[in-house]
Amino acid sequence: MNELGRLEDLPQDYRDDLTRLNLVPLWPSLRAVLPHQVPTRRTQATCWPYATLRPLLLRAGELTPMAKAERRVLVLANPGHGLAKMQASAAIYLGMQLLLPGEWAPAHRHTPNAVRMIVEGEGAYTTVDGERCPMSRGDLILTPTGLWHEHGHDGDQPVVWLDVLDLPLVYYTETSYAVEGRRQQVVPGRGEQAYTRGGMVPTPVFERSRKAYPLLRYPWADARAALVALAAGRPDQESVQVTYVNPETGGHAQNILGFYALMLRPGQTLRLPVRSPAMVLHQIEGGAEVTVAAQRFTLAAADTCCAPGYTEVSLRNLSADQPAFLFMADESPLHHKLGVFENRG
Ligand code: GTQ
User: Fold this and answer.
1) How remote is the CA of residue 99 from the centroid of ligand 1, in Å?
2) Closest CA to 54 of 304, 291, 296
3) Residue whose CA lies nearest to ligand 1 atom number 11
4) Would you state the pLDDT for residue 103?
5) What topology is assigned to 46-201+215-338 in CATH?
6) Among 175, 190, 73, which Cα is nearest to 139's?
């Protein structure tokens, strides 16, 4: 491989001429943007234990009223990108949001896609596109691009959820903006009651739904039951995993990020394939040891971590007699659409 010329090798007057004309020589920076074999990743394996984050989030509840916050969120920022960038990976944003009893996070809609993974508390709900979605631990609720959403809380304890957005990507493409709105009218009917069984879709007046996002709430009880049934039916199968899909298309539930639930059998160690997308793991039930290249995290329930792409990740259930359950988000749909997805085995 040739040693490429450096910027310092060029005469200063030539460099000054280039700069004045908004020109840059490629060769001194070529390897920075096209490194050999493996991309440069800013994303660092990072863990956010819930026990350390929770008191600070509750303190935000005392320090900042909703009127001053609109959304009361502590962002889980990856130090590799710089904390001010507020991103977990190239395409993934993570935030822990707190809503106190009686509070209201007003309606808005925006171009980035969001999902909520409910972490703690009962009695809150989010209204998405007129559909009232109750929030319980482990539920996944979609707020896809362009749909109105607002959050309310009729319970008596704080409610916390994990927001997962494709905000860094949408911001990077200079397409990120929001519109404020008025309180939504709730319309009857809920997607998860219409799409109750896999393999069957509702067909009112002989027509399938034309909604781009027909299912907005994926109850944890259903995801967990699917995993337990899968594990029981296929004891030979190492990976016990389901993908959250759009029930009309069978494709990913959203366009940019992929969402999955995963079960580790008692005592199991699962090595994930080395793939191009970065990923996020959130422990729903039990505990797991997560190894990302040379780093190791121990996840207790409600802990969250991320891993860069092109990296070995393995998961070990810390219990010898109970299954462990994790939620996973990754950049697979984006990589497939861009044609850059890779599985290196
Ligand atoms: O709840 O609508 O974490 O708009 C970041 C932006 C949550 C939300 C976030 C948002 C929201």
Assistant:
1) 12
2) 304
3) 71
4) 97
5) Jelly Rolls (2.60.120)
6) 190
